[in-house]
UniProtKB/TrEMBL annotation:
Top-rank taxon: Bacteria
GO molecular function per UniProt: adenylate cyclase activity
Gene source species: Novosphingobium mathurense
Entries under InterPro entries matching the protein: A/G_cyclase, Nucleotide_cyclase
Protein name: Adenylate and Guanylate cyclase catalytic domain-containing protein
BP GO annotations: cyclic nucleotide biosynthetic process; intracellular signal transduction
Domain Guanylate cyclase residues, every copy: 66-204, 311-431
Length: 525
């Protein structure tokens, strides 16, 4: 399989026609919420949630909300036994996530806020009501109360089930964002684009536990508050458990809502003690013959989970948050949303159609994909890494085509990270549509971190992938395991002509393909 420029250009044109900018309706959240209330009153809305859920592709909802990111700090330690990933450690890691996701969903329901996504050890939720800019302090108060309750819930959970103990770090920001969903009916991919979610995620990233507030949140609480980059004092955090929280027409303090949510969670845990009543919680693994593109997550509950060595790829659009913030300020939201739909769709199509890979999910403006080469018994590591490098080149070439075909995105870049290792794949068995597509391992964590260390022109490969890669791949990426401006033409030429660094000492000319600068590996001087 290979990337083809003509095929990619036709796809991009088709994606543009599927959701043209002129057909995207940009709607304020207050109006959207009013429509849903009318639908619910008339019986036309079966879901009892009035918040944003499954936004149609031709709509974009402008919101003003408090965004919460919660990070289970100790999750990475659960992934390994004595430094090695095993079936037992992966089973324990998935049970860890399954349990914490279930507990978190119980608390989210009790607080009547919106769960956006779970991604590995991270939760993204948003407080959208009471709506209106003037109610920002109330939404922030509710968000902090939820964060305090969530940290307390995780502590209780760890005391009752020591194998699931973890510290928690929470980041909170508030402000305007646009809600969209470019997923499918059976695989929703909700997203709030704009800086609040992005900033909250960065605040939640770190090893120090606690609740961390952005400058905007701190000043919304108190205009005279000095800027602080430390966690809320424990006494202040505990005080928020006594705050009244209104949800579904009733007001209870956060501690009472926490107690009610924990009772619901305990009932779920008791059901899991009886496998015949909760078979979804029994994790059983099998190898899947590549390609991975035909994986249907609905067919892989915990009892039918896949586990196999594979390549994990993260491709993140560099500069997109600032681009969206500018679009919001200049009332050019429809164009930005249309562009993102096309960019997301084409990156996923390169993985699936050109290289037989599988998109796990979109994480904001980033796509997470999996790829493997091999047979029904085993994965071929070298072939998988070679294919993943070509796929990264194809994604970058398609991104360059998108920049030529779409308005206003010339300044955006693409950062790509790759790693390789044994990875379990399944959906976590939460309730119905609340189930979560999961592919979580050291390889997935490292590939995301590799992407983070890249600029918008770079592709990086993790240490484990580098160690088992063909010699030509190691030569291409150099000792720093990073390369600039590697599009598909460059990757195909290098992988196809430099079979071994030991049979040729000829220095290749710098590749320029679709890039404004020479391709180069980063090496220490």
């Amino acid at each position: 399989m290979a990337w083809n420029q003509e095929r990619a250009a036709l796809r991009i044109q088709r994606f543009k026609e599927t959701v043209p900018q002129g057909e995207i309706v940009v709607e304020d959240f207050a109006r959207y919420l009013g429509e849903r209330r009318v639908l619910k009153a008339s019986g036309g809305l079966t879901d009892d949630k009035l918040a944003i859920l499954r936004v149609p592709r031709n709509r974009a909802i402008t919101t003003h909300g408090a965004h919460i990111y919660a990070n289970l700090i100790d999750f990475n330690g659960v992934l390994e036994d004595a430094g090695v990933e095993t079936e037992a450690s992966h089973r324990r890691a998935l049970e860890f996530l399954h349990t914490h996701y279930s507990a978190c969903d119980s608390l989210i329901d009790e607080f009547d806020i919106q769960r956006v996504d779970f991604h590995g050890s991270r939760l993204h939720a948003v407080v959208l009501t009471p709506e209106g800019r003037e109610n920002e302090p109330e939404r922030i108060r509710k968000a902090i109360s939820f964060a305090a309750a969530f940290r307390q819930m995780v502590e209780r959970l760890g005391n009752d089930f020591p194998e699931f103990q973890t510290a928690v770090r929470v980041g909170i920001d508030s402000g305007p964002a646009v809600a969209i969903d470019s997923g499918k009916r059976d695989e929703p991919d909700p997203l709030f684009i704009g800086s609040p979610a992005n900033h909250a995620a960065k605040l939640a990233d770190g090893d120090e536990e606690g609740i961390f507030l952005s400058n905007r949140v701190q000043h919304a609480r108190d205009q005279n508050a000095p800027t602080s980059f430390t966690a809320l004092a424990k006494a202040v955090e505990t005080g928020f458990l006594q705050e009244g929280v209104s949800a579904r027409g009733q007001t209870f303090d956060a501690d009472t809502r926490l107690a009610k949510a924990y009772i619901d969670f305990e009932a779920q845990m008791k059901r899991r003690e009886y496998p015949e009543q909760a078979s979804d919680a029994a994790f059983r693994f099998h190898h899947k013959e590549p390609p991975l593109k035909d994986i249907v997550f609905a067919e892989h509950p915990p009892s039918n989970a896949i586990r196999m060595p594979l390549a994990s790829i993260f491709a993140d659009i560099d500069g997109f948050t600032a681009y969206v913030d500018h679009a919001i300020q200049t009332e050019n939201v429809a164009e930005a949303v249309a562009n993102l739909h096309v960019l997301r769709a084409e990156m996923a199509a390169v993985l699936r159609e050109d290289f037989g890979g599988r998109k796990v999910r979109f994480v904001g403006d980033c796509v997470h994909g999996l790829l493997a080469e091999g047979n029904s018994r085993e994965t071929n590591a070298m072939d998988s890494i070679r294919a993943s490098v070509n796929a990264a080149g194809g994604i970058r070439s398609s991104f360059d085509l998108c920049k030529m075909a779409l308005p206003g995105i010339a300044g955006l870049g693409l950062a790509i990270g790759i790693d390789f290792g044994p990875t379990p794949i399944c959906r976590i068995g939460l309730r119905g549509a609340a189930s979560v597509r999961t592919a979580t391992s050291r390889a997935t964590c490292v590939s995301e971190n590799e992407q983070r260390r890249c600029t918008g022109t770079e592709t990086a490969i993790g240490e484990k992938a580098y160690a088992v890669a063909p010699a030509v791949v190691r030569q291409i990426f150099g000792s720093e395991r990073v390369i600039s401006n590697m599009d598909y033409d460059a990757s195909a030429m290098l992988l196809g002509t430099m079979a071994s660094p030991y049979v040729s000492s000829v220095q290749a000319e710098p590749m320029r393909a679709h890039a404004p600068e020479p391709m180069r590996a980063h090496a220490k001087l």
